[in-house]
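Q: How would the structure tokens look for this protein?
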Amino acid sequence: MDVLERVREVNAGASLTADQISGARSRLLAVIGDGGIGARARTNRRPMFLIAGVVTGVAAAAATVMLLAQLTAPAPQIEAEPVPAIDPRQPGEFIPNPAQTSGTGVTEPFPGTTPRTGQYLSIRTVDESLLYRGTGASAYQWFYRVDQEHPVAAALIRSVDTLYVPADRSGEWVGTYGPANERIRFYPEEQGPAGDSAWDELLPVKQEVDKWTYVGGVGGDTLPLTGSLESYDQYPQDPPALIQYFLDRMSGDTEPDPEGSATLNIAGVLLSNYAPAETRAVFLEALRLSPRAEMVSDENGLITYRVHADGWQGPSTTTFTIDKSTGWATEYAVRFDRMEGADDDMAPTDLPDIRRTFTVSIVDAIP
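A: Here is the predicted structure in token form.
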């Protein structure tokens, strides 16, 4: 996806079923960082091609991710040299304060956010991506552009995903994808019949809704499946230790900004919106302590962070907003720096390359 997406190039002639495409898309949206984002050298940057709105790449064909989930391969393990421990700010109370669940003796950090037996956590994601097309038969995000190819047009594309997480996470997870590839705006605004035809060919508008299912989480053959309770056992429950855990994973010769990438990985688990309440509380506190997560606003129960990072895809600025009463993300956006070829960009400079809004609720049944 961006700094939060791991993608690979897919043969334009590859034959994929609708279920494979929708599943890849939804799962690619399901793991915004669950398990970490692999460090890669920027020299390995590849163009990102899209099939019917699916961000398809190395992860998409083998994996399924939520923001981003997974038919995905496990995140690369990077052997790291010992690094100095982060000296975070003094830890404070979780936000909000944990409350004891009535009559159970169990402390729940975010009361009322855990589905009961038979219920589902519903996570609806509206994705608006700024895509470019060049003279070749491809559509891509800015950081995947081919250096020799100049974009001739851009479009803001909207797609919708919904994920239903059962109260019993060992049960059946259900995802839907669609409508997809709705074109919200063009840059330049008037592209003429030839421009419309080119976008129709690359990204045909899809009104139908596809459905996929997984049992026990999202993922492929790699256990534990993403989103399962077991998948969160790897994370330390102490916020400073959690920061160090991700920093250790991100430190390596190919990662230009380990601290920034570690912070984005912490954010990624929250952005999935299906981490258990206890996990969300620890990760939210880790963000508060992280020196790279800049708090830009804290009002009306919403807290917004900004992270500048120089990942394998190049420099970028990521912002995301968390509801402090639930620990659920409400919005996420990333803008890639135009370090090279900025004169070729016909879109407004303040327009995010990716913007996602989330609606999370607890429902009694899948519609």
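The chain has one domain: 18-363.

The chain is about 20% helix and 30% strand.

Upvote if useful.
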